[in-house]
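User: I want to check something. If I give you two sequences, will you return the structure for each one separately, not as a complex?

Assistant: Yes, each is folded on its own. Here is the first sequence with its structure:
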Amino acid sequence: MRHLIPSHDHRPSDDPIFALNREATERKAAGESVVNATVGALLDDEGKLAIMPTAARAVREVAQEEWAAYAPIAGSPAFLQAVIDDLFATEPEMKKSAVAAATPGGTGALRHAIANYLEPGQALLTTSSYWGPYQTLADEADRKVETFRMFDEAGGLDVAALDEALGGQLARQGRALVFLNDPCHNPTGYSMSDAEWRAVVERLAAHAEKGSVTLLVDTAYFAFNPRDPRAFLAHLRPLLGKAGLLFAWSASKTFTHYGLRVGALVACVPDDKERAATAAALSYSCRGTWSNCSRGGLAAITRLLTDPAMRAACIEERARLTKLLSARVHAFNEHARPKKLVYPRYEGGFFVTVFADDALARAQRMKDAGVFVVPSKGALRVALCSVAERDVARLVDALAG
C-alpha cells in the first residue's frame, strides 16, 4: 500500500540542473575536457567558487554562542533593519514603510510571498521565461503559475502582454501577485530599461484601482548589475500605498555564500495597522515552515552590512567579481553575434538564454561534445557565471552547432 498522497506520488527526486551539473563534474573528474555552463554560482577561471574574502572572514568570526543559539522567529532586529537600510539606501519613503522577515535564502522569501498573498488554488503571474523553482514553490503551496509573453517582436519586455494577463487574472481571482526578476533576470540575463519599468508601473497602478495587485521584485542578482543596482527603485514610488510592494532579498549571490541560506522578504506597507498585520503574518509563516533561520548566518551578514570597513571591503571585492563576470558577458556577445545566435539583450548577470527550436536535441549534442547547458522548451539556459572567459568561444561554437 502506498501512503503518499496521490498528488505527491510521482514527483521528481532530483532537480534537473543539479543532475546535469553532477554529470559534468563526474566527466571532468574522469579527465574529460568539459565546459560546464549549468552551475548557478559564480566560479573563478579555475572552476572554483569565487568567494569574497571579507564575507568568509565574517562567517569565521561569528562567536560559537551565536551559531548555537536560536534566532528570533522572524530574524534578529539588527539583521532586518540592516537589510532594509541596504535595499532602500536611496529611497527613504520605502525604508520608512518597510517590514521584513528573515528567510532561508531568497527562495524562502518567494515561498512566503506565495503563501501570504495568494489563496490556495490561485496563480502567481510571471514572465514566460522564469526560474523553474517558482513552479515548485507554487506546487508545494497548492498554488499555480501563469505567465505572460516576456518579449515582444522588438526584443523588449512585452508590457502589453503583461497588461492583458494581469487584467484577466484580476477578473478571475480578484487579486494578483506578479513576480519580476530584475535586474539580471534568471534565466535570460535581461535587465529592464527605465522606460520599461515606467510602463510596467503605470499598468500595475491602473489595475490596482480595480483589485489587489502585489508586485514582488526578485532581487537575487541585482548586486551584480553593471549599472546602478538600485536605480529601478525610483520607478516604483508611484506604487507605494496603491499596490503591494515586496522584495525577495538574498545574501547568497550578494556575498557569495550560497550555503549560508540567508535571505529576507521585505514588504513596503505605509499604513501602520496593515504593516503590523504583515509583520505578524510573515512571522507566523516562519514558525509554520522552518521555525527560524541560522542565527550565526544572520549575525555574519548583519556585520557585513553595517560595519563600515567590512562593507567597504565587500563593495570592492564584489566590484572585482562583477568585472570578472562582465568580461565573460563581453566575450559572449563578441562571439555570439557573428554566429547569429538569438538571445535577449545581455549586459550582465549570471545567465543568458539562447533561443532554439531544437533545444533538447541541441543540448544533447553539446553534452556529447563535453559542453553542458540546461535545455527547456525552445531555449538553452547558459550559466556564464561558471564559465572561464577562455572557454566562451568553445561554448558559443557548441551553441551555434
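And separately, the second sequence with its own structure:
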Amino acid sequence: MAQITKTVRLGGSSSDSIEDAIRTVLARAAITIDEITHFEVVRVGGKVDEAGVPTEFTVTVDVTFVVKESVHG
C-alpha cells in the first residue's frame, strides 16, 4: 500500500538562534505527531533591539508526517 503523508504549518521562536527555533518547533511537534519525516523552513524573521541586535528569531516550518493506516475495517 502506498504511504500517505500530511503537512502542517507551525511557527515558533527562540532568543538564541534560527536553528534553535527550528529545533523547538520540531521537538514540540513530536510530542503529539508520530512519524515526522521531514521539514521545510517557509519563513524566517525576528525582532531586534534599538541597536539592531537580534533579540528573537522566529520561524515558520512545514512539518510532514506519515498518516497512520486506519484501524477500522
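Because they were folded independently, the notes below concern the second chain alone. The longest strand covers residues 36-48. The helical segments are 18-32.
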